[in-house]
Amino acid sequence: MVALLAPAAIVTWSYVQRETYVADPAPPAPTLERTPAPLVRVLVFGDFGLHGRQQTAVARAMAEEHRAKPFDFGLLLGDNLYPCGPELSLPGAEDCTFSADENTVTPGYQPPEDKQFQAVFHAPLEDLKRADGSPLPIHTVLGNHDAGYSRSCFWTGKVPTRTSRLKACLEVAHQGPNWTMPGRHFVVDTPTARFVLFDSNTLAHDDYAFSFEEELAFVKEAVAGCGERRCFLVSHHMSVTAGKHQPETLTPAYQERARRLEEAGRIDAWLSGHDHDLQHSVTAKGYDVFVSGSAAKTRFEKFGPEPAPGARLRFGSTAWGFAVLEVFPTGWSMHFLNERREPLYCCEAHGQGRCEPVECPRGALPLTSR
């Protein structure tokens, strides 16, 4: 049974902490035709790069969920190293360079050991393993903090181009258990779904070291390759949000770039972090946007029913937690869970339809966390 923390009436505006905004307080029962196991099961979480009580609790819950019903892989939605990304003062860090494709690291480069990766990624996620003991792949994208876009790093807000290039390069170059980032952008393919991971700093920052036009060209080509499969965009930044970064997404330049990305081809949903909360919206274009950025650094939040003109917020929460995406023969679903693995919100998409709120399946999410 879904745990709805919002009052029965529809909320218009509210400041909440570890509470939930729900646009549809009485969802119908799930009707998705399910197989004994989904064709693809994906862990979706973001803004994870800060060690503390919240990260520890969420990481434990994700590992328990994986043991109960294994994931095929994970998607880490950026802001992997708070507050400023990789350390540039380490010997050899400034030697990192990109290949001519501006995406992959020059072959042969070995990055210095940056202890941040062990502290806030590898150690917390060490229990995410496959049945054979190998690490569960976590496919990772760049966030704004990874490239140095933080007031704690540069109070002027102007990040030197060389700095952002180096920081991005060092994250792509990093190697270690679970961590998978072969480039600033890449695709993850399964027989039934394609995940298009891209560097959304090009969407948000005019002074970023890399070109939005080149990123858009990659997204167009990658989306065209989805064919009949489910097609998901994956990035740190979102197209619409009802959270703290809403003013950023409503600027004319941001909206124009987001429009061009969403018109790259048919997509089922856009998966993102950036706001430190959990959200589900439907855009004016009719596709779903999910924010799963509550893994390590929740903040007070303001939610409202209209993330952007023509868009609608279906769900928003500041609970600690993560998301689970499942693809079935007849559709796909998204579940938000808190740090105790209790379901907060579930939705299901049938055929080419949108992900509609449903009551979370009984017994599908056994509670074993403390």
Automatic annotation (TrEMBL):
Phylogenetic lineage: Bacteria, Pseudomonadati, Myxococcota, Myxococcia, Myxococcales
GO MF, one example: hydrolase activity
Keywords: Hydrolase, Signal
Calcineurin-like phosphoesterase domain boundaries: 41-277
TM annotation in the entry: none
Species for this entry: Hyalangium minutum
InterPro entries named in the record: Calcineurin-like_PHP (IPR004843), Metallo-depent_PP-like (IPR029052), Metallophosphoesterase_PAP (IPR051558)
Identification of the protein by name: Calcineurin-like phosphoesterase domain-containing protein
